[in-house]
Specification:
This protein is of the alpha/beta class. Helix content is 47%, strand content 14%.
Length: 370
């Protein structure tokens, strides 16, 4: 009889486990599992009340006399105690810096680590410089890293990871997205994600403004929020297109599937920022393509792995919003192409980037190490 594996899902979220990765791992991985959160080195069980968190944090601060090294040691020991108590066989870290942060504790218990590598982990210059030494140490341990974009692999090799330690697998689309039937005649463009420099929503607005000159009945829906919200609103007012653009705020997964069903084309103008911040593989693009929406985006990060240019969508150069507008207009001028690209995109994602495929890849990684 095969050994029954028990894992700990470690997420760095400070007050509650809220990551997309951890949620799907909890639901779909076939192991006994617990979920821990509380920081880069998580030390609270899922379900721990904020009051109890506050008491523990206060207690640690009190007995350490605000000595950060002492606090770190207390947190590490609490994390170790949980792993030992629960008889954990492997820790699945949601982010690269979480995997690096828990390495010492896991090493003392001889527990292997599997961790995801996202765009922010390895592309942001400040983030990378801060954690690169820890990333490299993890390479010399019993670990597997799961980058979400192929362009991350050379960087991981430079850190010392061997080929057998690197398993490429972006987070995939859940089953419900493959069941969506978009409204291809709606002339509705949709964008989902944070309003940050890396996603360059201002470029999307500029492109859409050109689209309106040819198709004044087109609409653009933004789902999300972020630091660029006010700049986006100001630009829309300056361009006098506020009646054609709608902000939906953060939406639930059910609302997202409803939104995709009302839309015809997904847009996102991802760029590399001056700080070096870049996407890994945007989950929203995978979900939109799984839903049958053609994609208009940029040749950036893992997007080039998930969108087949001129077959499942169009990819333009970063910051070239004029070309983005041309592709958006082309699709509205050729509605049959919208349906064709949407169909091809759904097929491509189904074969290569489903959530079940990603979870199956992670399952194999865990079983390999245990």
């Amino acid at each position: 009889m095969a050994k029954k594996i028990k894992i700990a899902i470690a997420t760095s979220h400070r007050f509650k486990p809220m990551g997309t990765f951890s949620k799907n791992y909890e639901e779909l991985l076939p192991f006994e599992k617990i979920t821990l959160f509380g920081g880069f080195l998580p030390y609270f069980y899922k379900g721990t009340s904020k009051f109890h968190q506050k008491i523990i944090r206060y207690f640690f601060t009190l007995i350490s006399f605000k000595n950060q090294k002492k606090i770190d040691e207390l947190i590490k020991n609490r994390f170790k105690k949980i792993l030992k108590k629960e008889n954990i066989d492997c820790v699945l870290a949601e982010f690269f810096y979480t995997g690096a942060s828990i390495k010492k504790a896991c090493e003392e218990l001889n527990i292997p680590i599997v961790c995801n590598v996202l765009g922010h982990d390895i592309n942001n210059t400040k983030e990378y410089n801060q954690y690169s030494e820890s990333y490299a140490k993890l390479a010399n341990y019993n670990s597997i890293v799961v980058p979400v974009a192929k362009n991350m692999i050379p960087k991981l090799k430079n850190l010392g990871y061997k080929d057998e330690q690197i398993v490429y697998s972006p987070l995939g689309a859940r089953d419900e997205f493959f069941e969506i039937m978009p409204n291809y005649s709606s002339k509705v463009f949709v964008a989902v994600g944070r309003f940050v420099k890396m996603k360059s929503p201002l470029s999307t607005i500029k492109a859409f403004n050109l689209v309106l000159q040819k198709h004044p009945d087109a609409k653009l829906f933004f789902a999300g929020d972020g630091v660029l919200y006010n700049e986006m609103v100001n630009l829309i007012e300056i361009l006098n297109i506020k009646n054609s653009v709608e902000f939906l705020g953060w939406i639930s997964q059910t609302q997202q599937t409803d939104l995709f069903a009302r839309s015809s084309i997904f847009v996102q103008h991802s760029i590399t920022t001056d700080e070096g911040d870049a996407e890994g593989t945007p989950v929203a693009i995978i979900e939109a393509s799984a839903s049958g929406l053609p994609i208009v985006s940029t040749k950036h990060g893992g997007i080039i792995d998930t969108v087949i240019n001129e077959k499942t969508g169009f990819l333009v150069e970063e910051n070239d919003w004029q070309s983005m507008a041309e592709k958006m207009i082309y699709l509205l001028d050729n509605p049959d192409k919208i349906k064709e690209m949407g169909k091809e995109g759904r097929k491509f994602i189904s074969e290569n980037f489903s959530m079940r495929k990603h979870v199956e890849t992670v399952r194999k990684c865990i079983e390999k190490l245990t």
